[in-house]
Amino acid sequence: MTHDDLVIAAIVPCHNEAPAIHKVVTDLKAAVPGIHVYVYDNNSTDGTDEVARRAGAEVRYEHTKGKGNVIRRAFGDIDADVYLMIDGDDTYDTAAAPEMIRTLLEGPYDHVLGVRQDDPNATAYRPGHEAGNRMFNRVVGKLFGTPVSDMLSGYRVMSRRFVKSFPALSREFETETELTVHVMNLRVPHTEVPVGFKDRAEGTESKLNTYSDGFKILSLIAHLIRFERPVLFHGIMGAIFAIVAIVLAVPLFIEFGRTGLVPRFPTAFLAASLMVIAFLTWILGFILEGVTRLRRETSRLNYLTYSAPGTATRRLPVDHPEQQPAPQQQHGDAGTR
Fold first, then answer.
1. For residue 44, which of 21, 48, 57, 221 is within the disulfide window of CB 3.0 to 4.6 Å?
2. pTM of this prediction?
């Protein structure tokens, strides 16, 4: 199979991007001939859908507000060999798309991240965004063991097997974080490509709120630690309970050693209870680690049902009907005589 035979789909989430979407669609079609551009209108009120349709995109709708909801819908609806995700605000350099697709196929990789290279003369970063992005990159890289340069980038190229194994649980701008952590958890082949990043088109405004969306991303990271690193999360929680229990118990042990009495029985009961809670929390962490491992194995097996990027064959489960031998035709006596 040649690269020209592959179905390449661009997913463009949009909310009130009428001034920019025509250029995004036409630039994508010029950069990647034959690409299928799907513009997902997310409750726009400025005619984004009509502008995108006139530019040659296939317009679809997701009425539940939030970028994560759009990605969840698009990943479920669209069947392609290669998926390109890009924002509809014309801040990303569409000319980088062919290089990102080529990198994915030649690797082969399952995920190529477009790392934003900001233009200092026309910066697209709002105050606090760049610092927050760097902080999130360091935190997630340390916690999940894989370095990442721009985890909040909305410009990515992904394989079919990556997309179809991605659960897409987030609702809003946390979806980029969820995609990045999915790369790390499944340990799929992944690389980064620098891409241009410029200011938004005139007449459009960012939907990202520095503080509220930053808090949502931070909250998602905390939830991901809880669900994806249960031993770490419950180990820390258990350690907090244990430290408080020890702090409460030490004076009681000292007093008991001196007098042979326990003068503050309620404190002793509280310290003992907290230590029991600490041990139960640690045990819970180990139990959930087994559940997490089973869930990852299931995701991995689903990932392996699809072939590598650039190949024509889709791997099928062993019990798939297409792999069952065809029943032999039974001939009656009348047909053999």
1. 48
2. 0.75
